[in-house]
Amino acid sequence: DDKGELITRIKAVEACLATTSDVPCNIKFVIEGEEETGSAHIEEYLKKYKKKFSNDGVIWEFGYVDAKNRPIIGLGMKGLLFVELSVKESIRDAHSSLAVLIKNPAWRLIETVKTLRDSDGKILIKDWYKEVLPFSKKDLELIEKEPFDQNVFKKEFGIQSFVGNKKNLDAKKALVGDATCNIAGFVSGYTGDGAKTVLPGEALVKIDFRLIPKMDPKKQVIRLKKHLKSHGFNDVKIKIFHGEAAARTDSSHPFVSQVKNAADKAFGKSILNVSNAGTGPMYPFVDILKSPCISIGSTYMFSRIHSPNEFARVDLLNKTTKCICLIMENFGKN
Length: 334
Description:
With 334 residues, the chain is α/β, with parallel strands linked by helices. The protein has helices at 3-20, 42-48, 105-113, 137-145, 150-157, 168-177, 217-230, 254-267, 283-287, 314-333, and strands at 58-59, 64-65, 71-74, 76-88, 94-95, 180-188, 198-199, 202-211, 237-244, 247-248, 271-273, 276-279, 293-294, 299-300.
C-alpha cells in the first residue's frame, strides 16, 4: 500500500538528475516488502549494514494529506503487538443441543477478551502503562494546534460517537498517544448464510495492540501471559505474530523545520503531527541508526486505506514529488 509514496521519492530523484545532473544531497533508499507482516528482518539488516545506512535524516515511507489538502508531517509512529488467542474444547463441532454438557469455546474467548480492556478503551492488563511518560509541553502545544474536524471524521466512517465518548482535544490526544486493544477478527462456529445449530469445537480471536513510546513489545507479551494466567485462562493458547516498538522524533530537531519549509512551499500549508496513529518499523532506524524520522507523503486520509477501492490521488502524488525535491534542496543547503 506504499507504492504511490515510493514513486514520489523515485520521481523526485529522477527530476533532480534530469534538471541538474545531480542530487542536492546524498540519497540512500531502503525498500523492503515485509511491512504488513511486521518487518521481521529490518532490525537485523540495519545492524548488519549499520555503516552503509548511516545518515542524518530519514524520510519515512508515507504521509497523510487531510481533507483540506494539507500534508500532515508525522514525527513518529505507534508500535504494535499482534497476537492470536485460541481455545479448543472438543475434537469436532457438535449439535447445539449438547451445549448443556459441552463447553462452548467461543464463550470462553469472549470471557477472556472482556478482561483485557474496559468500555472506554483503557487496557486492564497489570503494568501495561508502567513505563509510559506523559506528553511534553511542546507535544501538547502541537496537538492543540493540529486541526481535527470530528464531524467530518464521523461522517466518513458513518459513526455517531467515539470510544469513551471522546471529543475534540481528547480525540486528538488519543490518535497521537493512546494505546489500544483491538479485536481484528473473531472466528468460531457457523458464519454462513441462514441458520445452523452448531456448537463449535474451537474458537480464535486475533488482537492487535497499538503501543506508545516506552512500551517494550517483549515486556508487554510477558504481561499479557501473566494476565491470562492470573485470571484463570490457562486453557487459552497464545500465538505471537510480531511486535514493534513506537518511535518519535523531537519536534525541535533541525530536520523538522527543513521538511516543514518544503511542505509549506509545495502545498501552501502543512501540519506538524506528534505521531501517526498507525505503525511501521520506524523504531530500528531511531534506535540503531540514531536518525530523525519524518513522515511526509501523498496519502489522502480518506483514501480507504486497507479497505475495498483504496485509491491514490494524482494531484497529491505530483505535489509530494515536488515536496521531496524541495526537502533534498533544503537538506543539501544545511
